[in-house]
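Appendix B. Raw example, untouched.
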Amino acid sequence: MSAFASSMDSYPDAAGMSSPVEVVDNADWELDSDVDPALAYGPFHQFPRKTTRCKELWQNRYSILDSNASKSQESSQQFYGRPMIQDEESESACTSKDLPMTGGCGGKCNNLSKGADHLQLQFEQTDNIADLEKAIQVTKEWLAYTLKGSQNSTCCLDKLASRLTMKYERTSDMVDLEAAIDVARRALSDIRTNDHESRGVILTKLANYHHSRYQRTGEDSDLETCIAEAEQALDTVAVSHPSRPHYLDNLAIKLATRYERSKRISDLNRAIKKAQEALILRNNRPGQFMALNNLGNHLQTRYDRFRKESDLETAISARQKALDDIPSDHPDRPPILSNLANSLRRRYERTKNVKDLSVAISMATEALNATASGHEDRVAISSNLTRLRRLLERLYK
């Protein structure tokens, strides 16, 4: 049995009500007027971008939308990463290289594709939104030259959706996210029936796009859709397929999100089981720190509800392994340090072992010092450190 295997029984089910959230109206989106009208299919849909580490498949930070409740829950302070991106081997499972350009339009398409890629790279290096907007426009021109239903068309649609999502992440304009989702749906419909690998890739991206929209609007339908898509993506790959661990991680995060909404322990138990299965399939390969971190988050969430010591100990073990695995200069190291400090604080509160408190303070201090002023994680890390210091002050009063 895996070191992370744990019993799923003895946890009662329960349901909870989430606080109301504001719903943002959807907006229509159209291709520019110079694009062939036959290829303009109205409102669009999809999301991830192609970066050096393929971070587009996961949002920059995972957070529970339930805005009123999440601010008061310690679980909202946990950092969730991008579990599809664990090692160099996995990169091919989540980028557009899974959707090769074939057939259709020859040199013209190739030139437009390369031009759009170059503009995207410029945007990633300079953060100049004008470069990204040009990349989107060139990708639309490329789309106009592709043949409907060819794999080339699917690749183009995939990249267009990714770039629209990049723009959404930069501007928070819902029009772009709605467009990305529609584009991804179009890409999914264009995939050949027997092309299971491309279908899995697009379904995974669609699941992330709907998850992103759920986080923004709080619509239950988006949450249910993203879970269904993540499950369908998992069904496209065999147990031995190298992408299966990433699809399992993806589904685990979506299930954990629904747990935060519904408080049904069956969702959290499933999330833990899927995350554990993903780690078993990886067989202790290096570069799985984000998957370990996320498993630690799921286990700590269950500990916070039932106070079962084995969940806390396994969460600490997973987070320590994540810290050991992550490179010292990796940008996600500070929040992982802070997560582990949180787990050690909980153990200190349970056992009153001062060593846990001391190590937790040291880790949280290191995490804060390594996080730039104004960074999105700094407030949560600072809050965690303040809580730890207060515990130390009480100890010596």
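End of appendix B.
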